[in-house]
Amino acid sequence: MGETDRRPETGEALIRSLYAEHGRSLLAYATRLTGDRAAAEDVVQETLVRAWKHADDLVDGKGSVRGWLLTVARNLVTDRARARAVRPAEVAEVEDRPPVERDHSESVVNTMVVLDALDQVSPEHREVLVQLYYRGRSVTEAATELGIPPGTVKSRSYYALRALRAVMAGSEAEVAR
Hints:
This protein has helices spanning 8-34, 37-53, 55-59, 65-86, 105-119, 123-134, 139-146, 150-169. The chain is an all-alpha fold and 177 residues long.
């Protein structure tokens, strides 16, 4: 009787009986070989599929059924290990944009706090800080833009930062100009 002549009920009944009789020991054996319960379950399933495909050989009583099942399971584990060894490591998809490293909400809040504090310092101090820190200008460039000497830019930036710190710290300390 060939594979196409076999009735599906006979093959299914055979697999049910094989699983009932040998399933636990087959799973234990595959788990010892793989070290992974999920992989072992896959090996048992594939072993039973192969048993179904070779039901005629198992029914004819040639050799030990348990021995056949354990040999098939061992061969499957070996085949999987070899396939993993020759297969290149999987690489994650490369995205066009870099991954988010941290939540940007903190920087948004910090910016809002600084802008609010800038509104509370004198206009002269605010102008110097905007030129130096927000527009990225050098002392000389800021002095030219504001029409004041470079020494005044340095002095105002020193006192402006102190005033800004005082505002952000919540103190009402007066800072001399």
